[in-house]
Amino acid sequence: MSGNKVVGVTPTSSAPNLISDLEALLKDDIKVKVAGIDVDGVLRGKYMSKEKFLSAASSEGFNFCSVIFGWDMHDTVYPKELLISNRANGYRDLIASIDLATYRRIPWEGNVPFFLVSFLDPDTREPICADPRGVLRQIVVNARNNGWRCMAGCEYEYFQFKENPDSLAAKKFTDLQPLTSGMHGYSLLRTQLNTGYFNDIFDESLKFQVPLEGHHTETGPGVYETALAYTDALRMADNAILFKFLAKSIGIKHGVVPSFMAKPWGNLPGCSGHIHVSLRDANGKSIFAVSDADLKNGRTDAQYDDTKFLSQEGEWFLAGILDGLPDVMPMLVPTINGYKRLVGGEAFWAPNAVTYGYDSRAASVRIISPPSVPPAATRMEIRVPGADMNPYFALSAIFALGLRGIEKKLRLPGPPVSQLTLEDKKAGKVQMLPTSLEAATERMMRPESIAREEAVFGNDFVEHFGGTRQHEVRLWNEAVTSWEVERYLELA
């Protein structure tokens, strides 16, 4: 995949198309903010003078230190010399290519102009294999070459605390005060306790060009859920990563720390990052929708009743996801903590097996189709990721596997979740997903992994991204936790 040429995305209506337009757009500004995304989904950026920015925008970009792909989210360098950034060449510069289609202004920072960048190899000017935006863009282009648009929506659940970065450190991240107490999903009362903060998230998102479809309390102390408006997949990933930035920024203003950690409490449900996906043709029609002739009774050639209101391409796409899901788990659940959300399985609506079903929140892939929605809204919801996902990699994994399923015309691996029993799982009739980041990474990196197929992600990506997950596992294995001290210090 790393050797394929990537073309640009279609600019949004507000994106400047020419440098002259850009100069006019920024005529009253003195600085511009730019940012790219690292492997952990952390925004890495800086302010630039307007003059420097315009110079970079009119050329091939500007230099950006490759160390952002050589260290983790806490700036600890990877001990393994990975492909993108290593000590052998002293962390050379990459080319940061400005995507003018991502233009917006940050309303809570004095309306400073903001742009996202993608990273290119300085020698070949090709996208580097581990750049999250570049990886997803290639998948989108591959789909477009077949006449399809990749569409997506993301939903985040997240805890919130009446804390700030200094108090978190002073308390050593223990005994934190939730924003509100109790379990109050969809409550109209709890939002009145912090109405300024709650409404600022919604209102500032609109100003920041990250439109929301829904915003409400979720069950759990201080938990919100926010659904981002459905759009093109690359735009969706941009909006998802920028929504986290927005929520944390608004939180600072109100003395609140929102957390997108997947499982901050052992005895409470975790925080999901559910993803909705579909394909559309050039006319905007859902590729997953059944034909008008099949709309009344469904397809007679569907494998199961649960998929009879999916098109044949939709069924193949679903089969592709299910076929490759165990091999891409680190791209959906990239953290140590994320797998603890899945341990509870269906008890916490966090599926941990290769399962699917019509309108089933107990399945890893929920089919949303007629008769519960009109054909145009036919889609799939992937319920495995937590809120700590990197949306670029998660969406890349889903679409790469689904497109592979269509190409290979794969059949579904088994019956829907409604036809399975607990005994089926115990008997091994249902394939379980990896239960730890270590196991998931080992599976993804094995020689026969679907992730290694060149048409999926290729060896370069798997070696680099897998190496970063091995680093995360090593840090966890070396850590001594409070649970261990409490359990063993006195009595062992």
UniProtKB/TrEMBL annotation:
Please provide the Gene Ontology terms (biological process) for this protein.
biogenic amine metabolic process
| UniProt keyword annotation of Nucleotide-binding present | yes
Keywords from the UniProt entry: ATP-binding, Kinase, Ligase, Nucleotide-binding, Transferase
GO terms for MF: ATP binding; glutamine synthetase activity; kinase activity
* Occurrences of domain GS catalytic (ranges): 132-492
**Which PROSITE patterns is this protein grouped with?**
GS_CATALYTIC
An example Pfam family from this entry, by short name, is Gln-synt_C
**UniProt entry tagged with the keyword Ligase:** yes
**What superkingdom does the record give?**
Eukaryota
SMART domains per record:
Gln-synt_C
State the similarity comment: Belongs to the glutamine synthetase family.
What is the name listed in the Swiss-Prot or TrEMBL entry for this protein? Glutamine synthetase/guanido kinase
- Organism expressing this protein natively: Dichomitus squalens
